[in-house]
């Protein structure tokens, strides 16, 4: 007997099958805090005008085997609006597991139902982790789509906490840590570990949002508090997760004032290093590296297994965990283009872009080359270079 499907319009409703959802979530090994119902309810409450939530549930007998919360909206490509569907929580969810235990044929039926209820050009699921050594359920959708793109979003550095972490790190990071600790000690700042609850999370978020606002993230408008919508999501989500004991913060304080922090989520013994910022006048302290080391020390004390960068840029990532990583995890973006005229058009545009992209990159590289002078009497070489840092972490 095949799966039985139903649609819901809210994950926050009193009649949502919360217990069945939690059972499903825990059965999917790769689940993350961004699959937590508290996070997803906060994302639902932060939806903007023109965005609608549709939740597809798949049941086998009385067991929930699929939960796919989807947000339909319009996005512009080359100035033209198209109907696009994303997973709830995009783009602030750093890594998601696909909560599905359905077989391939049932997943094919799920896609048919999605297209029937939510006609769209593109269905895109971002930041998906994939079961190691297993075929992901989404492969069933490729045969039913006009175009499919499976693209690597990022390779996340992770650190496996081990007995070796009781010893001081070796190499260049050791000297960077020592210098940073000396500077911090000289100015009188202190490191704090904080496990907030639902009551204390609000004031704590206010304190760290003030740091972000005057940091480079605030200047460039790329922080998690950059606009009212993301601020609402973060405040509600972290308050809900703090109420479950899943939030951790390491903070550098000077005279009782936060001057630098790292904000993380802890689940299944894995600490997701979600966000950090520091006051610009204290940039020379090197506090980020010291606070990352504090994560590791905390993990040794409380038997965490992993410190995880949560998300980084695919290229030129500046996350300090690269210095300490013992492995990497991959995030993938799946894009399914429908057979509707709009989906065919977008898919054609994607294929054309893949053909043109190498030529465009070559042309841009040539334009970026400095012009060679006609006459050159003296060749001057300089040592060293100045590069602006790649700010790739939240």
Main attributes of the structure:
alpha+beta, Aminopeptidase, globular, twelve-stranded mixed β-sheet, disordered C terminus, 394 residues
Average pLDDT level: 90
CATH topology of the largest domain: Aminopeptidase
Question: Secondary-structure element sequence?
Answer: EHHEEEHEHEHEHHHEEEHEEH
- Major β-sheet annotation: 12 strands, mixed
The strand line-up of the biggest sheet is 1-2-3-4-5-12-6-11-10-9-8-7
Q: What is the helix fraction of residues, given as a range?
A: 25-40%
Low-confidence parts lasting 5 or more residues at pLDDT below 50?
374-392
Give the CA-based shape: globular
Query: What CATH first level of the largest domain would be assigned?
Result: Alpha Beta
Layout of secondary structure:
Elements: E1 4-8, H1 18-27, H2 37-45, E2 52-60, E3 63-77, E4 80-87, H3 104-117, E5 122-128, H4 139-142, E6 147-160, H5 172-187, E7 190-194, H6 198-214, H7 216-220, H8 228-243, E8 247-254, E9 257-267, E10 270-278, H9 287-302, E11 306-308, E12 327-337, H10 341-368
Parallel strand pairs: 4-5, 10-11
Antiparallel strand pairs: 1-2, 2-3, 3-4, 5-12, 6-11, 6-12, 7-8, 8-9, 9-10
Helix pairs in contact: 2-8, 5-9, 6-8
